[in-house]
Design brief:
The chain is α/β, with parallel strands linked by helices. It has 14 helices and 34 strands. This is Beta-galactosidase.
């Protein structure tokens, strides 16, 4: 077996026998248009980094169990790794199978987590068998590009932040063996929060333990010196920024504050990876969700994360602050000027406002989205084989009362995940979500059967914590007062698979572009929904903010005629705006300070 290029001894890291320090940044290929991969990697190198770090999102490659994983086009992980090598970067790969990353379902395919009774992230044989099949496809791409074979891959992670989830060390050892048996010979490592609690659950003997944290790095170094005295300290996720949830405020972190924290660790001879160096975008339905114990917290479409390299590739003040620290860590005190191409602002289309045409009504669209599936009780997304999008549930129910003496009842949805739009006999009755579903909707009944139609939207699958893998749709049932309603039909609405026939029915606008360039789509008088550009599902928008514009990278724009289509769920608007800069919402610097502290 080839020997690993990276090694450590007496808490010192070596590369090919020479003392070494990893200066890295995270870029996720699945969040960056492939035409921009080289640009973003080149800018990471210009920041003074010697390594790029990426997760691998299983569900991005294999959304269906009936087809082999796809590694072509946007999913060409091998090409991304090869481009990093061409830019002079080493590569760290984090194949999971769980990745968190604020990505839908933590990277797990919904068909996997929807298997009845499956035990996730433990030595459940159903789970490990599926992971082994995935690794059989994935790991040859990584193994063939290892540094010991002349490639750029210098390290591979075992699982991800397991100490935040479980304590099955046998499962971690199995994960390690699964990598080694498939040819991974470079340095393996685990990654966990910077405290004893996380190390207790996620670190195993004989494997390098690395840290994930955004502050108190010196305290974490001291913990490692006590708990892992022979290992060099590596913060594989330094949270220099933070992500946003819909309905909250935009997070920013002061560049000098981030740089000071990095310097604190570098002064202690640590290695550091900036998470994220370039965040990119949760295109399509890729956004995940958190859960605070009371309600779901869906992540916005942008994954800019206040990163040093902004969502559109612009170099921010944080880039220059961290570049200074990275270069000084390499003994370069006089920071050289950047090459002009790195300082150029990406071109943008001229701003304009475009009237939004009319389209087919939402309920009509949902009814025609596919073939209804009958059942006695409501079926979840997983039972229907649908990973994302929406499902229209329909049944007949009787609300107590008489035509001459109407009375009020309550319509409740038990086990609602995540947001429901309710119609009675085709008349819109209201919206329920996980916080209002227990209270339900007050309905005036006359004792006459009513057709109940409920369109349930999946806001993104939970990506972190004990609820990872939680189902979507109506998981328990629909009640009129305390009485269940039975005999349903379900019509899946697979938004990610919509093509020209479906999109033709949506409201839209057309515009011309002389030359492809970036733009930012805003829907200032719309409520909540989805946007397609030239048939590509860009992502969600929502008037609750904080995000007000959706980034459209230039490769999605055509020279000549372009089309934007909009599926509005709540408040149809009249206009689509193309803007020249991003609006990610009002910022809150206070919240991020608490978020970055180790638990």
């Amino acid at each position: 077996m080839n020997s690993a290029v990276l090694s450590y001894h007496d808490a010192i890291l070596y590369r090919s026998g020479e003392r070494y320090r990893i200066l890295a940044g995270a870029i996720h290929y699945f969040r960056v248009h492939p035409d921009h991969w080289r640009d973003r990697l080149g800018k990471l190198k210009a920041m003074g980094a010697n390594t790029v770090d990426t997760y691998v999102a299983w569900n991005f490659h294999q959304p269906s169990p009936d087809a082999a994983p796809d590694f072509s086009g946007w999913r060409d992980l091998g090409r991304f790794i090869d481009l990093a090598a061409e830019e002079g970067l080493d590569v760290i790969v984090r194949p999971g199978p769980y990745i968190c990353a604020e990505w839908d379902n933590g990277g797990f395919p919904a068909w996997l987590t929807g298997m009845p009774g499956i035990g996730l992230r433990c030595l459940d044989p159903v789970f490990t068998a599926a992971v082994e099949q995935w690794f059989d496809h994935l790991l040859p791409i990584i193994a063939s590009r290892q540094a010991s074979l002349g490639g750029p891959v210098v390290a591979v992670q075992i699982e991800n932040e397991y100490g935040s989830y479980g304590d099955d060390h046998e499962y971690l050892r199995w994960n390690r063996r699964a990598l080694e048996e498939r040819g991974i010979a470079e340095l393996l490592f685990t990654a966990d929060g910077g405290t004893d609690y996380y190390l207790d659950g996620g670190a195993i003997e004989g494997t390098w333990a690395t840290a994930t944290l955004g502050s108190r790095g010196d305290e974490a170094v001291a913990t490692w010196q006590r708990r892992r005295p022979g290992e060099p300290f590596f913060n594989v996720e330094f949270w220099g920024g933070w992500f946003d949830h819909w309905g909250e405020r935009h997070h920013l972190r002061d560049p000098e504050d981030a740089a000071t924290e990095v310097r604190k660790m570098l002064d202690l001879d640590a290695s550091v990876c900036i998470y994220m160096a370039h965040g990119g975008t949760n295109f399509g339905l890729g956004s995940g969700c958190n859960h605070d114990g009371k309600r779901i917290q869906p992540t916005v479409t942008s994954y800019d994360s206040d990163a040093p390299i902004a969502e559109n590739g612009t170099l921010t003040p944080k880039f220059h602050a961290l570049r200074r620290e990275f270069l000084q860590a390499q003994g370069i005190d006089e920071v050289p000027e950047l090459a002009p191409q790195f300082l150029e602002e990406p071109p943008v289309l001229p701003a304009r406002s475009l009237p939004l045409s009319a389209g087919v009504e939402l309920l009509t669209l949902a009814r025609a989205a596919g073939n209804p599936v009958p059942s006695v009780r409501p079926l979840s997304f997983e039972r229907l084989g649908l990973d994302a999008g929406m499902v229209l549930y329909a049944a007949e129910a009787v609300f107590p009362g008489r035509p001459d003496a109407p009375s009020e009842s309550t319509l409740r949805i038990a086990g609602l995940n995540d947001r429901a739009y309710v119609w009675l006999d085709g008349v819109f009755a209201g919206i329920l979500d996980d916080s209002t579903a227990p209270d339900g909707l007050t309905i005036t009944g006359t004792g006459v059967p009513v057709r109940v139609e409920i369109l349930v939207e999946n806001l993104g699958r939970i990506n972190y914590g004990p609820l990872t893998g939680h189902g979507k749709g109506i998981l328990a049932g629909v009640l009129v007062n305390q009485r269940y309603t039975f005999h349903w039909t379900q019509t899946p609405v697979p938004l990610a698979a919509w093509g020209p026939a479906e999109l033709e029915q949506l409201p839209g606008v057309e515009f011309s572009a002389e030359t492809p360039a970036d733009t930012y789509v805003a829907l200032p008088d719309s409520g909540k929904g989805f946007v397609w550009i030239n048939g590509f599902l860009l992502g969600r928008y929502w008037s609750v903010g904080p995000q007000r514009t959706l980034y459209v990278p230039a490769p999605l724009i055509r020279a000549g005629r372009n089309t934007i289509k909009v599926l509005e769920l709540e408040k149809p608007g009249t206009v689509v705006e193309l803007r020249e800069s991003a609006d990610l919402g009002e910022a809150d610097n206070a919240e991020i300070a608490e978020a970055l502290l180790p638990a």
